[in-house]
């Protein structure tokens, strides 16, 4: 099959010819659009603060076995050990390789956790800690408590590290204590907050009296209800409102966690809210910051926010996840991108995938066009109301929709193990003033990290259709010292062959429709 794309020759060709390149440079202006800060829990959406008791969100018995919203597959853990996964390297091998981020020399039993907590860990089928869990848990569990800044690659189990510390520290001995907030986790999106609630609940299954609640923007009906939970996970604006309105009592809080901490401290608005929340908490609270990325400009903030913290950090070059194969599709021009997207989806059978775009408008446009082509897609952006967002993400987690189109609002933290491909329809960039956008390596890393979770394999495909995109992508490549393979889109036979080879070499899980060899 050979499906040529419309005119113009490949981008790389144009780039190697300076004349053409200059001509192109004038044509391609940075797109304006919705910003990251606009998409995340913004002050306006946060006004509708209320509590979400995720107890009500249990799936119907007849539905496919879901990931509990947001917990990982309940009691399935990282099921890479199971033979159904046609991978050459088993999780056990990875966890025995000292150079792998999933490696550990210790067992969960050696970490000094209470038996009821260990039972939860074992029921999740976590057989051994990952490196970040093994290294940070002894530091987190120390008495007196110490602050911690922890960094490790996406999908390597940071959530369990901070959740285990929380479960270890809370006191559930009386009904009064069970209903009193003792640990607070802040996350940048409602979806991530709800996911973390799911993890706390699943891990704490064997802890009698554990009550966990999400504090995220919600419908007006629940507004004003007092939090009666030992563990609270929320977005910063909502939590700030609740503390101010005294619907959350913070006097007994012992632990504050910022997940995606660099993002939380760096973003205008979010950063202020986190600082205000912290100022209202007891002074001797343990502060724990986790992320896969801590860019240089945020490190100082982080150290001020968590004074005297123990630190586990990584070099840029060690941040990429080995199992994620990175390619870019060289599209003739901006208009050709959509055709390439549809042809690409026509060619491959992909488990679940996420398409990242820059603006809400692009998300809606692609959703409509792909739906018309018969694909089961949903889109989720900051433009939707909270309750709608819950329905959308749940339908993706359950596998009812196979393709999720979203903006940076879901770039971080979301853990859906079946995601075998991430598409960057727009190269991630950030506004730096003066009408300029520059490459955003951190967002790139977080986006592609939605696949390849805990030793799984996946493919990250970035669309490049102009010189500006290409330069930004090369900047990202340099930043991480990684290799991204260029794939032309003017010869689909060749594209099929190239992508097939790449997928095989990475053990990644996508099938070509007419000759499946790989399985995920
Ligand atoms: N010790 C373990 N053994 C097996 N599976 C694990 C273990 N720890 C975590 N996992 C699983 O690994 C997956 C990724 O974990 P998690 O979401 O905590 O990653 P993360 O490091 O927070 O990633 P991100 O940077 O993207 O937020 C989850 O599905 C989780 O259940």
From TrEMBL:
UniProt superkingdom: Eukaryota
Keywords associated with the record: ATP-binding, Helicase, Hydrolase, mRNA transport, Nuclear pore complex, Nucleotide-binding, Nucleus, Protein transport, RNA-binding, Translocation, Transport
PROSITE patterns with a match to the protein in the record: DEAD_ATP_HELICASE, HELICASE_ATP_BIND_1, HELICASE_CTER, Q_MOTIF
GO biological process, one term: protein transport
Residues annotated as domain Helicase C-terminal: 323-503
Residue span of motif Q motif: 106-134
Family membership noted in the UniProt record: Belongs to the DEAD box helicase family. DDX19/DBP5 subfamily.
Protein's name according to its UniProt entry: RNA helicase
Protein's organism: Capronia coronata CBS 617.96
Lineage: Eukaryota, Fungi, Dikarya, Ascomycota, Pezizomycotina
């Amino acid at each position: 099959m050979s499906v040529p794309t419309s005119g113009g020759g490949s981008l790389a060709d144009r780039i190697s010819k300076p004349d053409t390149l200059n001509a192109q440079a004038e044509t391609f202006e940075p797109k304006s659009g919705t910003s990251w800060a606009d998409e995340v829990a913004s002050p306006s959406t946060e006004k509708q603060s209320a509590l979400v008791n995720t107890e009500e969100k249990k799936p119907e018995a007849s539905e496919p076995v879901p990931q509990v919203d947001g917990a990982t597959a309940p009691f399935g853990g990282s099921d890479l050990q199971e033979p159904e996964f046609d991978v050459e390297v088993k999780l056990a091998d990875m966890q025995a390789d000292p150079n792998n981020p999933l490696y550990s020399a210790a067992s969960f039993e050696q970490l000094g956790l209470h038996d009821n907590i260990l039972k939860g860990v074992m029921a999740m089928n976590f057989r051994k800690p990952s490196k970040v869990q093994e290294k940070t848990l002894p530091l987190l569990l120390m008495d007196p408590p110490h602050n911690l800044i922890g960094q490790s690659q996406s999908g390597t189990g940071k959530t369990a590290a901070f959740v285990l510390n929380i479960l270890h520290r809370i006191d559930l001995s009386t009904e009064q204590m069970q209903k009193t907030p003792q640990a607070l986790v802040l996350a940048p999106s409602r979806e991530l907050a709800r996911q973390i609630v799911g993890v706390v609940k699943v891990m704490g299954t064997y802890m009698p009296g554990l009550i966990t609640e999400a504090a995220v923007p919600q419908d007006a009906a629940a507004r004003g209800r007092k939090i009666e939970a030992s563990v609270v996970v929320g977005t910063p604006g909502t939590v700030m409102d609740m503390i101010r309105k005294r619907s959350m009592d913070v006097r007994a809080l012992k632990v504050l966690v910022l997940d995606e901490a660099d993002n939380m401290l760096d973003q205008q608005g979010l950063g202020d809210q986190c600082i205000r929340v912290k100022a209202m908490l007891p002074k001797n609270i343990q502060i724990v910051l986790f992320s896969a990325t801590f860019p240089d400009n945020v490190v100082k903030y982080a150290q001020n926010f968590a004074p005297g913290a123990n630190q586990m950090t990584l070099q840029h070059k060690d941040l990429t996840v080995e199992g994620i194969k990175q390619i870019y599709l060289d599209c003739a021009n901006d208009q050709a991108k959509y055709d390439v997207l549809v042809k690409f989806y026509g060619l491959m059978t992909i488990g679940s995938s996420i398409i990242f775009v820059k603006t809400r408008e692009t998300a809606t446009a692609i959703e409509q066009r792909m739906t018309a082509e018969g694909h089961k897609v949903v889109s989720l952006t900051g433009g939707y109301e909270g309750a709608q967002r819950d329905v959308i993400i749940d339908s993706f987690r359950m596998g009812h929709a196979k393709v999720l189109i979203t903006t940076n609002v879901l770039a971080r933290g979301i853990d859906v193990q079946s995601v075998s491909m991430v598409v960057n329809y727009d190269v991630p960039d950030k506004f730096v003033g003066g009408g300029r956008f520059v490459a955003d390596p951190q967002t790139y890393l977080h986006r592609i990290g939605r696949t390849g979770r805990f030793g799984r394999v996946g493919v990250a495909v970035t669309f490049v259709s102009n010189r500006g995109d290409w330069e930004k992508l090369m900047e990202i490549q340099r930043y991480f010292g990684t290799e991204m393979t260029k794939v032309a889109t003017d010869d689909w036979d060749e594209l099929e062959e190239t992508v097939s080879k790449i997928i095989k070499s990475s053990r990644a899980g996508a099938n070509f429709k007419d000759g499946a060899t790989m399985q995920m």
